[in-house]
Design goal:
The structure is a single chain. The protein is mainly α. It has 2 domains: 156 residues, Helix Hairpins (Orthogonal Bundle); 61 residues, no CATH class. It contains 5 helices and 4 strands, in the order ααααββαββ. Strands 2-1-4-3 form a 4-stranded mixed β-sheet. A hairpin with a 6-residue loop joins strand 3 and strand 4. The radius of gyration is 42 Å and the shape is rod-shaped. The model has no long low-confidence stretch (mean pLDDT 95). The chain binds zinc ion. Zinc ion binds next to loops.
Length: 237
């Protein structure tokens, strides 16, 4: 096999490697992963905000509960004294009864307030449960996508290793100066440094070459190198 034919095999492997690199960077799971990660971050912030709200309401609920309890305790103490028979002055008894009645009314007010906070807290709890379930689903999806990407990468990397080995093998049979020329041209021609000339068409750019030029290329002595005037690829007759 001629050095130019070997060069075409190098070109084939390079194109295969280009496709593998492109496949690796543009895996559809990557954009999906980015979108799910953004969603998860948003829902995570929502969960934290809801937790803050719930905790605030809960601490107010507990504060009111403590207040209601201590008032109930005071009412109990006062009623004990009231009915103990130790106070005989009717005016004093009347005043104490009035205090007890007022305390009971206040306690009821606090309990109503506490109930409102409890209802608010329950609404927070429901919203939190929903948001946390959504977050768990999103995180599971993120994990699934990461695993799928890792699998695809492993598969592509294995194919890449095979192609690289084949490429290196063909490259050893191409003269270094020709290989360097090819690589430079490939860099300027979207990956096509060498191409087969079929009929009068360059297989890199698919444009026609003038027939006299085609004749010259076909009759050129062994070892001479021709280039496509259109795209600059090394032409292999
Ligand atoms: Zn061309």
């Amino acid at each position: 096999m001629s050095t130019l034919d070997e060069l075409l095999l190098v070109q084939e492997r390079d194109l295969a490697l280009d496709r593998l690199r492109h496949r690796r960077t543009s895996l559809p799971e990557r954009s999906e992963l980015a979108a799910r990660e953004t969603d998860a971050a948003r829902v995570d912030a929502e969960v934290k905000e809801l937790q803050r709200g719930r905790d605030e309401v809960l601490s107010e609920e507990r504060r009111l509960d403590d207040e209601a309890r201590s008032m109930a305790e005071r009412v109990r103490e006062m009623e004990q004294r009231l009915y103990s028979g130790t106070i005989s002055s009717p005016r004093e008894l009347q005043a104490m009864q009035a205090d007890v009645d007022m305390l009971k009314r206040n306690r009821e007010g606090i309990e109503d307030n506490e109930l409102e906070f409890m209802e608010q807290r329950e609404r927070f709890d429901q919203q939190l449960a929903t948001a946390e379930a959504t977050l768990a689903e999103l995180r599971a999806e993120v994990e699934r996508l990461r695993a799928a990407i890792a699998d695809a990468e492993r598969e592509i990397d294995a194919e890449t290793a095979v192609e690289e080995e084949a490429r290196a093998d063909h490259a050893t049979r191409v003269t270094p100066s020709l290989l360097a020329d090819y690589e430079r041209r490939r860099g300027h021609n979207r990956g096509a440094g060498a191409a087969r000339l079929i009929g009068d068409t360059c297989q890199a750019c698919h444009l026609s070459i003038p027939s006299t030029e085609v004749e010259n290329i076909r009759r050129a002595p062994e070892g001479s190198i021709s280039y496509c005037d259109n795209c600059g690829a090394i032409l292999v007759p």
